[in-house]
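Anyone have tokens for 3-oxoacid CoA-transferase subunit A? Sequence:
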Amino acid sequence: MDRIADEHRKTMNKIVNNAQEAIADIHDGMTLMLGGFGLCGIPENAIAALVKSGVKELTCISNNAGVDDFGLGLLLQQKQIKKMISSYVGENAEFERQLLNGELEVDLIPQGSLAERCRAGGAGIPAFYTPAGYGTEVGEGKEVRVFDGKPHILETALKADFAIVKAWKGDRLGNLIYKGTARNFNPPMAMAGRVTIAEVEHLVEPGELDPNYIHTPGIFVQRIFEGKDYEKRIEQRTLRTR
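Reply: yep, here.
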């Protein structure tokens, strides 16, 4: 039985050597989900590998578009992104320039709706109703129904060819634990990719992660690698006054 268990574990090994190997089959025109909130919990190594690969015409689903010289801003600099599906994009001057010049398609979505559309994509829910956005440009052309006397608009689920997330710890089976606020958009996006790539700060052996604290089960992850040289920049440093 031990030999059979060992063979099974070998076939469940999802480790790839590095970010370059993890994203090697991402091609022009694909749709990507990228976890993170601001610059917190973003897959730094995978983004750098995408820049180096030269892949273009990407549709990127992310809460934000990074800043000019970091995060998704690096892909925008190289004009590798065709369309952004985001919630907040106010920290990126290059994003603004491309938008105003008609070089970039943009779909702005209320933050809660964006999170739920990603979660719905991973849960197999094709659409849902929400009051967020009713009566605004967000709701134009969308089906409206009234629940408890309040109008709701129909929003559809989001999915991606690849979901790229960043976690604190993971094992070779793909089980992931996020740390603190880096949990943000990573868990729902990890569920919604046809292929999910996880980069982690610490890659450990199966059994080293307490199953009570796993945020993303390995069934959702197809590739995992240990990242390096994380900068972990802070987008807007805010301190409490004493």
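The first helix runs from residue 2 to 11.
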